TrEMBL record:
It comes from the Eukaryota. Residues 119-220 form the Hemimethylated DNA-binding domain. Gene3D superfamilies: Hemimethylated DNA-binding domain. It comes from Galbula dea. Residues 1-26 form the signal peptide. This is FBX21 protein. SUPFAM superfamilies: YccV-like. Transmembrane segments: none annotated. One of its GO terms (molecular function) is DNA binding. PANTHER family: HEMIMETHYLATED DNA-BINDING DOMAIN-CONTAINING PROTEIN. Keywords: Signal. InterPro entries: Clp_protease_adapter_ClpF, Hemimethylated_DNA-bd_dom, Hemimethylated_DNA-bd_sf.
Length: 230
């Protein structure tokens, strides 16, 4: 049997209380006893018919059961939708994270670079000089091998230098004091050399480093988490 809520219980009480109230009214304010008796009889019959139709009828209980099942089905459906949405959301989120990591080019990936391979010679924070172009800069990230879009690879490395794709590459903030046109560069390991005692001027320097100790720049905590061995 379905559970009777407060609204239904109140309705029953009102119906049951209507009979004695109407009876007393008819008893004291009717015109004569015959009319009062007829009014009372009609009231009793009407109240009983209403009560039986609402609470003693199989059809009424069948309707209530159908409504209860419909609500239960809707709640279950809503729960399943929420469950499916959560599964979809977290699946897409994980997929998006993997895709973002795959598409992080030019040493900009935020995955933890640990352990650090021995063949990666240089570290974040070291100041470098480009062997061919002569500009200086500071390393802000590295990849164990070149990580760039396919079009960049084809443009940057002619057939004679395809082996450079497998070499470590470094992301550099270029020293503004050099007057060089670019502000950043992505360079293979063989094209740079380390220099000590040279400070770099760049508008983004403080975002990556908290200071300079005379030999290398000190990484900000967020950058140190990405390159814990540098």
């Amino acid at each position: 049997m379905p559970h009777l809520n407060a609204a239904v219980a109140l309705q029953i009480c009102v119906l049951l209380s209507a009979l004695p109230a109407q009876y007393l009214i008819a008893q004291w304010y009717g015109t004569d006893s015959a009319q009062r008796s007829q009014a009372t009889e009609r009231l009793i019959i009407a109240s009983w018919n209403s009560f039986t139709k609402s609470w003693l009828s199989l059809d009424a209980w069948a309707d209530r059961l159908k409504l209860w099942l419909l609500k239960a089905r809707r709640c279950l459906h809503a729960g399943l939708l929420i469950s499916h949405f959560r599964s979809w959301y977290y699946r897409e989120k994980k997929s998006g994270d993997r895709e973002a990591e795959t598409r992080s080019y030019f040493a900009e990936s935020t995955y933890i670079h640990s352990p650090k391979p021995e063949y990666v010679q240089f570290s974040v924070g070291q100041v470098i000089v480009h062997k061919r172009f002569g500009y200086s800069g500071v390393i802000i990230g590295w990849d164990v091998k070149e990580s760039t879009p396919a079009e960049w690879l084809q443009h940057k490395h002619p057939p004679a230098k395809q082996d450079l794709k497998a070499a470590p590459h470094y992301w550099i903030l270029i020293n503004k004091a050099n007057g060089f046109g670019k502000s950043t560069a992505y360079i293979p390991e063989e094209e740079i050399t380390i220099i000590v005692g040279l400070e770099v001027q760049h508008p983004d320097l403080k975002a990556y480093f908290s200071g300079y100790d005379g030999s290398k720049y000190i990484m900000q905590p967020w950058l140190k988490k990405i390159y814990p061995h540098d």
